[in-house]
Amino acid sequence: MIILCLILGFMTLCDGQENIVETEGGKLRGATLKNYKGEDFLAFMSIPYAEPPLGPLRFKALQPVKPWEGVRDATVDLPKCIHTHLGVQTGVEDCVYMNVYTKDPNPSELKHVMVYLHEGGFYFGSSSVDVIGPHHIMIEDVVLVTFDYRLGALGFLHLEGSDIVENNGVKDQVFALKWVQRNIHKFGGNKDSVTIFGESAGGVAVNLHMVSPMSKGLFHRGISHSGVALVPWMLGNRNTGLELAAKLGIESNDPKIIEDELRKKPYTDIFQAQQEMFWLARPQSLWNGGLVVEGPGEDHFLTAGPYDMLKDPWSVGMPYIIGYNNLEAVFVEILETMFGFPHDYTLQNDMSHALIEGDPNILNEVIEEVKKFYFGGNLPVKYDYDLLQLMTDISFRYPVIQLVRKWASTYPMYLYEFTADTKLNLFKNAIPQTAKYQGAAHMDELCYIFRHSFNADIELGSTEDKVVEKMVKMWTNFAKYGQPIPDGENADLDNVVWKKVNSNEMNCLVLNHKQLNDTILDVKFADFWDSLHKKYNRQY
Fold this sequence. Notes:
The chain has 540 residues and is α/β, with parallel strands linked by helices. Helices cover 31% and strands 16% of the residues. It has 16 helices and 16 strands. The strands form three sheets. An eleven-stranded mixed β-sheet has the order 3-4-8-10-9-11-12-13-14-15-16, with helices on both faces. The chain has a three-stranded mixed β-sheet with strand order 1-2-5. Strand 1 (20-23) and strand 2 (26-29) form a beta hairpin. The termini are far apart.
């Protein structure tokens, strides 16, 4: 009996040691989780990748984390950065943490790494396990990194003449990518094979990292879901700190006084003041939470406007997957139905500011052209496929096609359109009014790569299971080989060949729940918008 107890005790000790890794900050004890097929993987969660940006460090660039003593518990999910979720405030200011998932921290050969940049318009969202659950993607043998970065005013406030750092949220991402370079081998990951991928704001960030000098050399492949640097909601207003200070009762226009006073305020007060400023991304104008152009500088992320930065990127030749969902704009109808944000059917608020530039005469002319192209000469009177297509084209599809046209000759680019429609389409199926549509809403594709806690478990052999397997296989293939389907026709991937786009053909893979289809995309809609930009001499 004594011998049996000693054996069991030794087995427990060994099992615990297998779940311990040592990073530059210290030792971490992880947890064992199971992917949706019941296979084990390790999760190391709530890893601090920087010193908490609190007190005098608020609004400043991140600082290296101070090492800790002993073994840190890394079995609990990361804390969310403060934001609203389904209309409810959640999260904290101390939130620059990451989760790392791996099947083996000590492999015979280091594994390919995938780093996810979460969605949310730079003002909400999280990479927590309940939203970005690793249980789908970890059916494949990669090392997955997810993390949170500062959001809203705490991450993207701007105030000229102060030491409030511009674009802090995306600079947090750079800081996290540098941490990955220094530490990921401890989890079995290869720092020389890193793929970054993201959705919406995360997709925009991926594209920006491909052109920002701050990110040079930190990754080797990119995937942008539903967002690129050319989206009309990327850039933001300057000097948002003045309005924020006024709402907090700070009676000064002196930037130095304002920054000092803002650091004294509770972070919840700053968040509430932010919410009163209509902190919401929109295409028709610059908005309070967007990025600002910083100009040249060693510690500057956005050194020029997006059009200029795209002309001379450091990442030329990098493999790149880029795409969108066919019904991205369904979320607008959901916002109106659930939260009372009414849509203006005159289309006054739907046109891109990059085209209109605040000129009411141009706005009216453009709306007349849009009415002819999308609605047979009439204004829409309700949500339907035509209106959803217009809003999808302006904010997502057209910017994607424009980037493809700019980069296809110098990048190996793979274009997709996601149309899968199953029980996993969490967002399209959120309300009956949108569940009737056929296709995928904004963020629906994420439910096939990651597990969302609101979705039911996947039945093995089901349609959902098959789509998850296909999408995860292609995404992880890309991380491993730089090609989503590296070996040509494959029965598991419906025997399609996902061709790169080129200057003559807009090759596109349609990711449907029934069948993957390779096609040549009809880009008449992009030609229409090109003609308007040319007519009004607008750069796009």
